[in-house]
């Protein structure tokens, strides 16, 4: 009762004008406005404000309230920024007391709640649009449902929010919010906000704050429950009789207060603009915003600079450009092909590091080193194919991977320098085009002898010389212990010569794909009922190449599962090492998901369960436990019936049956790597489970795990966006209009929850593959997963 009395006292000066506006501008039940008619607004008694339709673009309309007497017609409230109304739409105050916005087909776009007590509506001179009963009480008001702006006399109660618009001209919801929390703390943050403490500005009044009030004199302050001032937010004395006022949470995340001279209104012959008063909140958002969730003041891979007009600008680092040049806050993308981990050290000479003084991306390091100088920092990043940025400061190096977030230019950070990895001179990767190896010494000798011969005597001489060199070469090879052929110790596999595989592949003519260890070619075994095969030519073996090759042959040769690609045979002849697999006619899962029409939901669920069963076999059921280390759509192949089969064991790490963990160098592919790869932690089968979780999300959504070209910044990182939808109860958004999927919401929700468990940052929280398989198949109940670590922070 006391708070109600205080609120009445605050509004007493408004009662005469409010009563007058009700008397003069009542909008009766059944009244309506067309979006494109000659009369598309209802005005307040003084004409200062109007409620109605604002044309935005391309025949679309915004239902809004705006200042009507000034040149800019500034919008201060809108109903349908996220879903604009098409031409021919209509807003009606129905007989049932609802305000309803409908499209030309009569389908509802936006509406107020039903309240049978409503007698009429009014556009007040305060800028508040109200639905009232016959006694003058407001049953609904725009002041209680603000968008991004508040006006004098407006009060924000606990739970109320201001939400910034997307851009200066786009009225859809932006990524910043000002929220008076239920505990009384007034905060500014970027959703999703799973941790209420991760605000970039706060009054720190939890347990005390009650209401935010904007009074007629231009003061904006937070009160205690008894009405006394708890915290001043903005305090610039102005006269409401001389200026219009508004305070807005703008699209750049800053809360600002503005005034506009009333004598500059239309008809006065003078055209002026809004002037900012009071200090903005926060004063420097570039250095204020530091959140583990979200992308900060600017988009991914960009950094924020506070310019001379005290407004933040988003800029791209050297070698990067805006994803959307028309909207700089959307983030940046590289103008070059990033370093390939498949090519490893072959590519490092193609990159250099560029300096950016006083710039930092402060979060999401995957490694750091103390007691380093700047040059060692540079080399550490150049030698690491996963490193895109290194921050050097105070003799410490912090390594980061793209995408990076929360970037800022800070003039006070004089000892901080960002080093950005870029490709030199627009160079391209030195990737072999595939096919057999370059001709060895034997071939060159024979070709040379034929080319040089011009007479029988010379031919004879060269033949003898060639024979002598050939003899010395082969003897040298035997002395080095090189075997021309190795008979398979596995009776189920066939041993091939290099020449045989050259012939069955037509001189390695048709390339099927390229992986980390070489290229794959199509061939036909004519001696075996014309069986089609896939021949993998290993091209990048290290000094331990024999070990890598024998590991792959020995491991895959002993596996037998319908969800694993079958190894038919091999070749180990001199320096030539090849593997012969069964041919998979439907290619990779990557092509199936991303390069054609959207596959059926049923088939995608079958594939997910098939991959899970294949990993379960590798982890727990075959004779030696195998960690694949590179689970991704490119390594899942599909046979003639679209059965999923796991391929490419070239990166597999064998564990003895009494082992559970091993230390190894970073292997795998960006986007699917578990966090422990970068934290000097022991590697276990849980890295495969993390990669499977990302793969499962891609199967659910039919899109890649990271897409920076998307217009909606919140959807760029798939795992973050899916969890947002799950957390907000909006899983239907990820359906993409897939009716089959939306009709199977129970299973879709289960799959999403399983994926969230799989990508937990802490490996111990990830379930084993046996449980993953059981959860996918519905045999085991899936508990509610905790929020996973941000994809930005773990890739």
From TrEMBL:
Domain annotation Protein kinase: ranges: 506-792
Reaction catalysed by this enzyme: L-threonyl-[protein] + ATP = O-phospho-L-threonyl-[protein] + ADP + H(+); L-seryl-[protein] + ATP = O-phospho-L-seryl-[protein] + ADP + H(+)
GO molecular function per UniProt: ATP binding; carbohydrate binding; protein serine/threonine kinase activity
Bulb-type lectin domain span: 18-144
Keyword Magnesium listed: no
Signal peptide: 1-23
Keywords: ATP-binding, Disulfide bond, EGF-like domain, Glycoprotein, Kinase, Lectin, Membrane, Nucleotide-binding, Receptor, Serine/threonine-protein kinase, Signal, Transferase, Transmembrane, Transmembrane helix
Domain of life: Eukaryota
PANTHER family: G-TYPE LECTIN S-RECEPTOR-LIKE SERINE/THREONINE-PROTEIN KINASE SD2-5, G-TYPE LECTIN S-RECEPTOR-LIKE SERINE_THREONINE-PROTEIN KINASE LECRK1
Name this polypeptide is given: Receptor-like serine/threonine-protein kinase
Organism of this sequence: Punica granatum (Pomegranate)
